[in-house]
Amino acid sequence: MDLDTLIQHYFGTDDPDTLDPAQLVLGKEKLAVDFGVEREPSRRFALWTLMDAFGFAPLPADAFEKEPRLREAADAYLTAAWRIERD
Predict the structure, then answer these.
(1) What pLDDT does residue 2 have?
(2) Distance between CA atoms of 50 and 34, rounded to whole angstroms?
(3) What count of other Cβ atoms lies within 10 Å of the Cβ of residue 21?
(4) Which string of DSSP letters, residue by residue, matches 8-40?
(5) Per-residue confidence band for 52, with pLDDT thresholds at 50, 70 and 90
(6) Is the pLDDT of residue 80 over 80?
(7) Burial, 11: exposed, middle or buried (Cβ in 10 Å; 0-12, 13-18, 19+)?
């Protein structure tokens, strides 16, 4: 999945800095619903990373409760993101 395409799909723009509050709320709602119903593991992970980028992803233990490999990948993703932010 292409991140720019996902942002365009859910938020109607390719530049998140231009979002007005209503667009942001609607996009987050659509994204959360799709994450909740998606069954394909790689698509779920991609949607979760987008949710994380917008600051509303559930914790990996909650998001991937029944998917240990995805939970581990999400934990590793968050660890790497935290290290990047620290530098």
Answers:
(1) 86
(2) 12
(3) 7
(4) HHHHS-S-GGG--HHHHHHHHHHHHHHHHH--S
(5) very high
(6) yes
(7) buried
